[in-house]
Design a protein that fits this description.
Strand 2 and strand 3 form a beta hairpin. Helix 2 packs antiparallel against helix 4. The N and C termini lie far apart (40 Å). The protein is built from eight helices and six strands. 44% of the residues lie in helices and 23% in strands.
């Protein structure tokens, strides 16, 4: 008779093994990003998803990742739907898919508020995870769309963290913008000096995001 409660306990335990982080990677493909810079972003993301240290953290945390491209007010595209990383093979497949993403938009504006709203909507279909994080990257300030502060407040109310990579060429204009108007109170910004530093920045950023919970 003891087998029944033991089996019941085992079945009830499995839903508690929720993933640590549901992570949306939101990539800027606005007009300021040329084809070579787009390639640097995509390849940098794919390389990060093959990095052994990141792969170990993803698998250990059973992390879920979705990839979205964003640009103008009506231009957000889900390029890779939610994918949960349970094995190194899952991570390898995700990296391959990321590298083959075709650019969704060209010659278009920069609307980070709508990118945030679109990313927030994705969590409705995400696996049950301890934390929800939007990882947004970009090289410009808004020239389209709605108020970014309102979008940040919406994320905070949903208990979603926004982190960012600011791609700079001169000064810290983009970094200051992301710090003051985009990231949530518990979020952080990393600065990449030109798109060539983006691969290094996204590796460090993803590792920080997925390792925060699992140590």
């Amino acid at each position: 008779m003891r087998l029944i409660p033991s089996l019941f306990a085992l079945l009830c335990a499995s839903p508690l093994a929720a993933c640590d982080v549901a992570l949306v990677l939101a990539i800027d493909v606005s007009n300021s990003i040329d084809s070579a810079e787009y390639r640097l972003q995509i390849d940098g993301m794919a390389d990060a998803l093959r990095d052994p240290e990141i792969v170990e953290a993803l698998v250990t945390g059973d992390v879920a990742i979705a990839v979205m491209q964003w640009s103008g007010a009506d231009e957000q595209q889900l390029s890779i739907p939610w994918t949960q990383i349970r094995t190194t093979f899952d991570a390898s497949l995700l990296a391959d898919r990321a590298r083959s993403i075709e650019r969704a938009y060209t010659l278009s504006g920069t609307a980070p508020a709508e990118a945030i709203y679109s990313a927030l909507d994705l969590f409705a279909s995400a696996p049950a995870c301890t934390r929800q994080v939007i990882d947004i990257s970009g090289d410009g300030t808004p020239n389209a769309g709605s108020n970014v502060n309102f979008a940040r407040v919406a994320a905070t109310r949903q208990d979603v963290t926004i982190n960012a990579i600011a791609i700079e060429f001169l000064g810290l204009t983009i970094t200051r913008f992301y710090n003051s108007r985009v990231i949530t109170p518990e979020g952080f910004v990393m600065t990449a000096r030109t798109h060539r530093q983006y691969p290094e920045a996204i590796r460090a950023k993803i590792l920080r995001e997925v390792s925060k919970v699992i140590g």
